[in-house]
Amino acid sequence: MKVLSLFLCLVFLFTVVSNATAQEEYSPWALRYLKQSIEALVVGDYDEVITQSNLVLRIDPNSSVSYTIRARAYYEKGELEKSIADCNQAIRLDRNNLNAFSLRASAHARLGVIDRAISDWQAVLRIDPENETAQYNIALVSNER
Questions:
Q1: 3-class SS at 39?
Q2: Number of folded domains in the chain?
Q3: pTM value?
Q4: Torsion region of 60: left, alpha or beta (phi above 0 gives left; psi -120 to 50 gives alpha)
Q5: Angle, alpha carbons 55-59-64 (nearest 5°)
Q6: pLDDT tens-digit series, residues 74-113
Q7: Which of 38, 76, 104, 126 is the most exposed, having the fewest neighbouring CB atoms within 10 Å of its CB?
Q8: What count of Cα atoms within 13 Å lies in the side-chain half-sphere of residue 12?
Q9: How far apart are CA 123 and CA 97, in angstroms?
Q10: Structural domain of residue 113, as residue ranges?
């Protein structure tokens, strides 16, 4: 289970960072803190993820990636409202942030707000129509209604 969680975390980070680096430019300090937040996320040190993401956001308050990474940390800690708030900010900054939509959908689903979860997974499908995870999750939570 720990290996699967680590793998999913790495996939999440790869897609977040690869999508964002083309869109966002970082100062050397922000890059350093961003790298440290990613390393902390990989090992499951969510408090450190939040600390490092906060440092990035002080330097670059428009970093959609940092909001998304911090949202993942809040999600993993069970702080779902904070996760949703960071996803909202990430999406405000980047309307094509697939990871923020998907993470916000998962948070809504855990809170039992199924209509919002479905809406976010549908947004994922508008960005990536072939996204099998979103398709699966929509089918799964639709049965819970």
A1: helix
A2: 1
A3: 0.83
A4: beta
A5: 85
A6: 999 999 999 999 999 999 999 999 999 999 999 999 999 9
A7: 126
A8: 25
A9: 10
A10: 2-142
